[in-house]
Amino acid sequence: MTGGLSPSSSQNSLTGSEVAGSSQNPMPGGASCDSVDFLGSDLDCGEVAGFSSSIGESQERDSSLTKGLRGGYTCSVPGCYKNTKKNKEVSFHRFPNNKQLRDKWINAIKRKKFVPSDHHRVCSSHFEGGKRRNASAIPTIFPLILQPKSRKEPAIRVNVPPKKKIKPTKPMPSKPLEDGLVIIVTKIVGSLQDENATLIEALQKQKMEIENLKMRLESHTFCLRRFAGSDEDIRFYTGFPNYKTFMTFYDFLLPAASQLNYWGSNYSENRADEKHGPQRKMQPIDELFMVLYRMRCDALEKDIADRFGVSVSNVSRTLNTWINFLYHTLKQLPIWPSSKVIKDTMPKCFKDQYPDTRVILDCTEIFIEMPSSFRAQSQTYSTYKSHNTAKGLIGIAPNGFVTFISDLYGGHISDQKITEMCGIIDLLEPNDMVMADRGFDIQHILAEKKVKLNIPPFMKGKEQLSLEEELETRNIASVRIHVERAIERIKNYRILQGTIIPNRIHSQLDQILWFICCSLTNFLSPLVQ
């Protein structure tokens, strides 16, 4: 240190007894030697003898001492940044050793939880007049104290992807500026086009992969699309000859099928802009496929539910809804053709032998459970089948197209009685010919409408038929066989084939099993070309 002070001398405290001899020299302001604190250093009276007794001279001495310190001091007052290097016009003072006076300094500078050390200083700018006048002076001027600012709450951090740095392009010469810009834009456009083409190609690959996954999934799912590529499977599961015919039938049903009011729903309003009833679990096309699969293969509802991945109750509701819908839709289609249509579509075998044939009639029976009522048992018991049956009559055109479907009657009724009751007589016109089996003894009924009956000849007590009668029988049988083939097509819907129908649905056989199955056979190719 400069000025002849040793480092150890600055650490000693100046007591009153050590400076007793110097008390005769009063200090400015009435302070005695024992109360003077020179820069906070505790110098004995002998070392202080060379200094001036005035406070101003001690401040100059204090300033000269700090000039030689390595690094210097900075004012400890908050907001004041004066130091010994930059602000040589001010002096810097230690905190007093006197505890009371020291606390007053600490409170004055308003620095919380501050414990000053030997290296802390307060500059003279904070004393009145810009100087420390006496040893008991307290800093009172603090124009630079800053009020703490209220800190804003930190904003919620959001992970933002880093922006792609774009390298700045070098400035182009002024003359070829336009050509340079064209080159740059061309390169950028070409790069974007290449990137776009790559993305399009990747997108197409993803779409193809999705379609392949869908096809793989559908190949393991029991639905129409799984069998769309096989006409044999379509005919086996639906009864339609191929997928195209099935889709034609579905397109015909779709406008009404998309607004079905499902069986068991409580929907009462008539709104045409949305489907009524519960939300669909399946697409309409698969619901139709389910109904046809039920009738074609006579599948149980539990089996259908497992195959289609729905509940048994959903299967039951869907079947009831679609069967009633198909019945009422197909019932509206006119299937009785005019005489001109019959003649235009008549096969050669009929034109050569029976050109006036309008319809070929025959009856068929379906097994049912034995009713609990004795009267119903008598009405439904068939002596021909030796079982309780339901009996219906169908009529076909010469080409095999089903042109008439009767209601179902008890199996005990005769063919003649069904013909009288079913209403087909009212559709016949004069000069028409009806072809039938021997059981249709309805000549007297048809004669009233001038309609001819073509049936094989009876024996009438003869031992055998004549040659002409036998030839006639064979000719009729050769063309009448087509009605048997039509009935076979109908019973290819296995729900009718050899199945004992539960008695609970006997009242609905005409719409559930009989009429729909007969009508659907008309979507097959003609029996006779």
Q: Can you give a write-up of this model?
A:
The protein is of the alpha+beta class and 529 residues long. The protein has 3 domains: 7-130, no CATH class; 226-331, no CATH class; 339-523, Ribonuclease H-like superfamily/Ribonuclease H (Nucleotidyltransferase, domain 5, 2-Layer Sandwich), CATH 3.30.420. Helix content is 39%, strand content 8%. The chain has 16 helices and 9 strands. It has helices at residues 45-48, 55-67, 99-109, 177-219, 231-238, 243-257, 284-297, 301-308, 312-331, 339-344, 348-353, 374-380, 415-422, 443-447, 467-491, 509-520, and strands at residues 92-94, 121-123, 357-367, 381-382, 387-396, 402-405, 409-410, 433-435, 452-454. The strands form 2 sheets. Strands 3, 4, 5, 6, 7, 8 and 9 form a 7-stranded mixed beta sheet that branches. A two-stranded antiparallel ribbon has the order 1-2. Helix 7 (284-297) crosses helix 9 (312-331), helix 8 (301-308) crosses helix 9 (312-331) and helix 9 packs across helix 16 (509-520). The longest helix has 43 residues, at 177-219. The chain is rod-shaped and about 165 Å long. The termini are far apart. Residues 1-69 and 267-273 have low confidence and may be disordered.
Low-confidence stretches: 1-69, 267-273
Q: Could you state the order of secondary-structure elements as H and E?
A: HHEHEHHHHHHHHEHEEEEHEHEHH
- Rounded to the nearest angstrom, the distance between the terminal CA atoms is 133 Å
- Helix tally equals 16
Main β-sheet: number of strands, strand sense, barrel status?
7 strands, mixed
Tell me, briefly, the overall form. Answer: rod-shaped
What is the mean predicted local confidence, pLDDT? 78
CATH architecture of the largest domain: 2-Layer Sandwich
CATH class descriptor of the largest domain = Alpha Beta
Q: CATH topology of the largest domain, what is it called?
A: Nucleotidyltransferase, domain 5
Mind telling me the C-alpha Rg?
58 Å
**What's the number of structural domains?**
3
Amount of helix: 25-40%
Overall strand count: 9
Proportion of strand residues: 5-15%
Give the helix/strand class: alpha+beta
Full CATH superfamily name of the largest domain: Ribonuclease H-like superfamily/Ribonuclease H
